[in-house]
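Whether sequence alone determines local backbone shape is best considered at the level of individual chains. The sequence in question and its structure tokens are set out directly beneath this paragraph.

===
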Amino acid sequence: MKKFNTKQLVFAALLVTLNVILQGPLFKFDFGGIVQVGWSFIPSALIGVVFGPVFGFIAGALADVISFFLFPSGYPFFIGYTLSSALGPMLYGLFLYRKKITIPRIFLSVLFITIFVNLGLGTLWVSVMRGKSFIALLPVRLYKNALSLFLNTAILASILSTPLITSMIKKYQVHKGE
């Protein structure tokens, strides 16, 4: 089991907090409960890159549950959305944790999240919660996710290549045996 030092624990808490804040109503745009656009993918990616897939899964789920209680949307709690929120940082961790961060790796991580989590599971959850056909929801969600695939890749590539972020990753990343 990896042990976190105090600085790593505080940094992890800050990333989870940032994730929660960016899931809030000021930073997330909801289009009729069918499509959402937001910025929480950035701290999700950082959590996966710095702390790995296992902690990423836990932190993603924790951030979703906290944001549900802090920013109630009027919809009931649904565990499917929590699963999706947990899978994002986990997948970023699988592709980018302790690996050379390259644009192809970033693109593949965003591609997997886009196809399996956002389009697959996300559309399924909306279908279940709204009582609408999965196939009927797919075209609108497909357009949004096709655009966000390239935007999210470009945003993450530019953020993860900045000297400040690369030094923070090196400083706080949990290594084997820690």
Summary: The chain has a mean pLDDT of 91. The helical segments are 6-22, 41-70, 79-96, 103-130, 134-160, 163-172. The chain has six helices and two strands.
